[in-house]
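Entry under discussion copied across for reference:
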Amino acid sequence: MSAPRPDFSRKATLTGALVRLVPARREHAAVLHPLLADPEVGRLTGAVHSTAPGLDAGPVWTEEQLAGIYGRWSVAEDRLVWVIEEIATGRIVGESVLNELDEDNLSCGFRLWISGARDRGLGTETVELTLRHALEDQGLHRVSLEVYAFNPRARHVYERAGFVHEGTLRDALLIDGTWVDAHVMGILADEWRERHGRS
């Protein structure tokens, strides 16, 4: 009997002890738009090419444009996009995404960003919830991501979740006149099951 095919049209809410991942909708743009203006979010995601104030504002989307993007993503069949809600405060603090679904090879990409909520375990739990959904609920075989060399904090979180460094994209980002490598990381379903005692 073959495994069920992944179905990213199913937009489930995922709940942990610290965060709730809620499927993103166009109305979330009003909250996410100012968070995306966080300079640290722009730098760590590679959305900006200068950290000097006023020199690079990153992607310039109006709130209305962002609402359109989230509206399209809310019904997309090749990606799952969640807003990250901190349960203790009810605040939305970022976004978690499974994208680039490859149904034939049972794989997808992963990315996340969080604004102004460091050292509280929110990112760690978001990674765990997202991977559990991808590798267990959706039946995927592989999830991969890229993380820039200047972001060891994120790389540590990914390694703790079971991601393995698979290679390096040399000089993948130009920021402040300096080239920065991007590290490619991946996790397989068997590795996930082994880490979590699932057969």
DSSP finds six helices and eight strands in the chain. Helices lie at 29-36, 39-44, 63-73, 122-137, 152-161, 189-195.
